[in-house]
Design brief:
The protein has 528 residues and is mainly α. The protein is 73% helix and 0% strand.
Length: 528
């Protein structure tokens, strides 16, 4: 995996913002490549060809790749003179590729190239996927040859899949430390956005990451800003938002290992450089009357990544002034809570409490104060805040506070009797029954825990098998081997073909017991 692959997972999030930048039209979106025949080509098939083709496509869409490949092969046999043989041969290879039968798929992709190389609609995808199949098979050199052939060919390079070829070549150049070459390919992939939006986004993310890591913001703006969008505040905010998303995710993950313990200063310098550049983008947020987004992005980066403490504190004060002017008190309260959370995470606890106290919704304010005390492990003060909420005439907040107080007793303070009393008051089975049995388990009261699990098993059929499995696991953990074996056998008899049965089978194997068969009714290994 290359160092920029972290951004592939967030491509979908960034597509929306880039759509505004690239002004993609509906017609451009329709040019995205798909293996499916266009309606016009499909209509050219005879009725008999369509019948066989549809069988194969139906299996492919259902994920039955091997079966689909077989049906496409039947098409080749039945309609050997069809004008669609190049497409069907590609589809057969594609299905085998999806089935991970890559060696056979590569042979068929090669056949498409050898016999139908002039048919760009089918040969270009065959070349591209042959490259991918080789790379997936471990033959990176051969795979890259395919990608290079695609970008160098005058005809194949016009196909929308060339964006993927550019991106793959760029990733390889980056791995080989050919940084300028990698940037060139990624930008070429990005420029293919009107033909292959997804691959263009991947290339754009990688190119943006390059500029951020090398601190070349002049280069980034020279690429992203032009005469048409230079003074458009909406477009310029999108340029800033795109870079912020890439920086936010990249620095969080050390750019998938590019930053290590040995070059943390380089990372710190890159983060400082990003903040310096992003701060200068404020004018576009102000011009668009969107100061809160700038506060959100800036304060978040300065809190969780890096930057000037003075900048951070100054922006927090500005954000507070902004919230006080909001007419929508619900919106203002949410923003005050957000600021309090940032201060809490910075460990500025007194200030976080002060801000939380400005929230006009009292249960909301007390809960935010509870969270500050909980972060400091000041459990007495934290519990007092929860008790105050429980005394307020607000059922939603009361229930949340009760559940949280019970959780603290159970998971933090070990006050299991008090937790159980609260869960009994809350009375939301089966969830509270699970919580109560966990209290007994933590308390060391195995018999009581198992009795609660029996109640769940008898009263809630959809959770019965899991309750039964918990009993077996607890008995095994307690060293009660015979009872654990009896319970595991019972599970296999009463709850066959469930996850619990599979776990019971594994438990019996671990205990050296031959599996198979159940036990007599009632001999379930439970304590009386």
């Amino acid at each position: 995996m290359n160092s920029f692959s972290i951004f592939r997972s967030c491509a979908a999030v960034l597509v929306a913002s880039w759509t505004l930048l690239s002004c993609l039209s509906a017609a451009a979106a329709e040019q995205q490549w798909t293996w499916e025949l266009t309606p016009a080509r499909y209509q050219e098939m005879s009725m008999f060809e369509r019948g066989q083709y549809d069988k194969a496509v139906e299996l492919l869409k259902a994920g039955s790749f091997k079966g689909a490949a077989t049906e496409f092969e039947k098409f080749q046999t039945q309609f050997s003179g069809s004008k669609f043989i190049s497409h069907v041969l590609f589809m057969r290879a594609y299905c085998l590729h999806q089935n991970k039968t890559r060696g056979e798929a590569i042979k068929l992709y090669n056949e498409v190239m050898d016999f139908f190389g002039q048919n760009i609609d089918d040969a270009a995808p065959a070349l591209y996927y042959m490259g991918l199949a080789n790379i997936e098979n471990g033959d990176t050199k051969e795979g890259l040859k395919c990608m290079q052939e695609m970008v160098d060919d005058a005809d194949y390079s016009k196909h929308s899949l060339v964006a993927g070829a550019y991106r793959v070549l760029g990733d390889n150049c980056w791995r080989n430390k050919e940084r300028d070459k990698a940037l060139k390919y990624w930008r070429l992939a990005s420029d293919s956005g009107n033909r292959n939006q997804q691959e263009a986004e991947l290339g754009r993310n990688s190119a943006t990451a390059y500029y951020i890591k090398t601190r070349d913001y002049a280069g980034y703006e020279a690429w992203m800003v032009n005469a048409k969008n230079a003074d458009d505040d909406k477009q310029r905010r999108n340029v800033a938002e795109h870079a912020w998303n890439i920086a936010w995710n990249g620095f969080a993950g050390n750019w998938n290992g590019d930053y290590t313990a040995y070059n943390q200063k380089e990372k710190a310098d890159a983060m400082t450089a990003f903040w310096t550049w992003f701060k200068a983008q404020r004018k576009w947020y102000d011009k668009g009357k969107d100061p809160w987004t700038f506060y959100d992005r800036s304060i978040s980066f300065l809190t969780y990544r890096s930057g000037s403490k003075e900048d951070r504190d100054g922006l927090i004060e500005e954000a507070l002034i902004y919230t006080r002017k909001l007419e929508d008190k619900g919106d203002a309260n949410n923003k005050l809570a957000w600021i309090s959370d940032r201060l809490r995470d910075r460990k500025v606890y007194d200030r976080a409490i002060y801000i939380a106290d400005q929230i006009t919704d009292r249960p909301y304010a007390e809960y935010k104060k509870y969270e500050v005390y909980a972060r400091q492990n000041e459990w007495e003060k934290a519990i007092e805040r929860l008790k105050e909420i429980e005394a307020m005439p607000n059922d939603k907040w009361k229930m949340q506070a009760m559940n949280e107080r019970a959780r603290i007793y159970r998971e933090v303070l070990g006050k299991y009797d008090e937790a159980i009393k609260l869960y009994q008051l809350i009375n939301q089975p089966p969830r509270t029954l699970w919580d109560i049995q966990d209290c007994y388990k933590r308390w060391g009261k195995l018999d009581e825990s198992i009795r609660q699990l029996t109640e769940i098993e008898n009263s809630f059929p959809d959770q019965a098998s899991q309750a039964a499995w918990h009993k077996a696991a607890y008995l095994d953990e307690a060293g009660q081997r015979d009872k654990a074996i009896a319970q595991a056998r019972r599970i296999m008899k009463v709850y066959p073909r469930t996850d619990a049965s599979s776990k019971a089978h594994q438990l019996l194997e671990k205990l050296g017991v031959k599996t198979g068969g159940g036990v007599a009714d009632g001999a379930d290994g439970e304590p009386n």
